[in-house]
Amino acid sequence: MTRHSVRTATKRGTILAALVGVAAAIFATGPEAATSALCVASKPGCFSSIQAGVDAAQDGDTIAIGPGTFAGGITILKDLELAGAGAGATIIDGGGPVVTIGEDGGVDPPTVSISGVTITGGLNDSTPLPFAATGGGVLIPPSAGGAAGATVTISDSVITENRADPASDDQLLGCPCAFGGGISNRGALTVTNTRITDNVAGATASDPSVAIYAAGGGIFSVGSQATLTLRHSVVSGNRAAVNPPNGRNTDAGGIANFGGALTIEDSVVGGNRSEVEAAAPSSFFSGVFTEANAGGLYLAPSSSTTIIRSRISGNSVHSTNTAGDASAEAAGIDAEGSLLMTSSSVENNTSVATVRSASGFLAETDGGGMQVRGSAVVRESRVANNSLTSTSESGLALASGGGLASIGGDVTLERTVVAANSARATGVGGFNLGGGILNVLFGGGQPELTVTDSVITANRLAASEAVITQGGGLYTADPFTGTPFPVAMARNVIEGNKPDQCVGC
Q1: What is the DSSP string of 43-109?
Q2: Which of 62, 119, 58 lies closest to 93 in space, CA to CA?
Q3: pLDDT per residue over 335-385, tens digit each?
Q4: Residue 445 has pLDDT above 90, yes or no
């Protein structure tokens, strides 16, 4: 037999074996197992609801969802792919949450892919507890022992106008609380080519909340094993908000990352709001303080975050108190964990704190673009056009770090521009420091700041007459003693700032 005939015989044998295998699979296991594709649509042969399709599916199946609006309140406990007809065509509406993926405390979390859908209209007011609502649009709970839950991919979709807000005002465990208006993640979540917009944790403009605390208007990711990756996506117009009589604190109108790894690539986190409207007898000196924090991103102390080729812009933080002190911090990013940011921008974020009562003493705002209490490396990026405004009608006003406020942080800036940021303080006294960068530490020790091959320019401070105003470009000293905090600097330009260039340099 020739080599050619051997190869031909071998090839024919391989093809025959493959055909036999396919036939055996079809006829031995029955007609239902021969197909792994199910459909949900208003036509014969398809399920009329997504939950019915999910219940009928087996691990590994694909469910094609046609155009139309389908009921939410779906629970997925299997390895499945849900493929819609496009975000403008396939709408999953309602439920609390709209979609739950995995089982709280489950032992075998699923792997799920969702594409081409809009998830909307969710109102979660009682899961997992009536006083702690978590996940309005999508909920990914933890598995057994608090380990990571489901592995989930969401692509080419829209998650919009969902809300998490507790129904009960029972004050237990620091709550009532609202987490993750759009998504609550305790698994491994990847979001690609998706818009997460106009979701709410806590109060809306027209509907008040009983929550003391709200976090993650767009996305709330929590747990040391949880991971969150955003690629080519937009997180915008989301809100974390509280109001009287209970409201005290908020974190992250956009994304709150409490532990685990967060990666943001080629994406936008913009136009999100973190808002506290309070009537609370709070005081900075008593340790009870009302604070709105992190308009765009809150990165908790245990978290690790990488931001690449992305824009953090147009986010805002507002804190108002009619019966005590108020604080509004970190309009763009609050980095209390580890942050690496490259080829990105933090721009046009705003922070406003207002005390409107003689019972209040202090209005404080800092970190118009970024606040760093952990570690941050910022390379080839822009921190620009961010602003702070602090107003105390009868007490002290603090407004510092218009672009970046490092408060005991470890910060490195390389080939970065810090420009056109501003801070304004109005009060009977106070501090207005670091129009571009504030570098301080209270209570001993010293912060770490390294700036190389960077530009700090056109930043400005403005304050009422009794407020101490210093360091239009950079302030790096103890505000109370004037002792400088050393900065490692090389090949930088610091010019064109008002009222001065650098204090403590």
Answers
A1: STTSBSSHHHHHHH--TTEEEEE-SEEEE--EEE-S-EEEE-S-TTTEEEE-SSSSEEES-TTBSS-
A2: 119
A3: 999 999 999 999 999 999 998 766 678 899 999 999 999 999 999 999 999
A4: no
What is the rounded distance in angstroms from the CA atom of residue 398 to the CA atom of residue 419? 21
Tell me the pLDDT band of 23, cut-offs 50, 70 and 90: very low
Residue 26 predicted with pLDDT over 90: no
User: Exposure of 264 by Cβ count < 10 A (0-12 exposed, 13-18 middle, 19+ buried)?
Assistant: buried
Residue 49: which domain range?
A: 42-278
With respect to residue 317, please indicate whether it lies within any of the assigned structural domains.
no
Measure the CA–CA gap between 424 and 388, rounded to whole angstroms. Answer: 6
Q: How far is CA 122 from the centre of its chain?
A: 19
pTM, whole model, 2 decimals? 0.91
For the chain, the straight-line distance linking the first and the last C-alpha, in angstroms and rounded, comes to 88
Task: Report yes or no on 269 lying in a domain.
Answer: yes
Bond preceding residue 208 cis, omega within 30 of 0:
no
Is the Cβ–Cβ distance between 274 and 295 less than 8 Å?
Answer: yes
- Residue 289 CB neighbours (<10 A): 21
- Is position 452 within any domain? yes
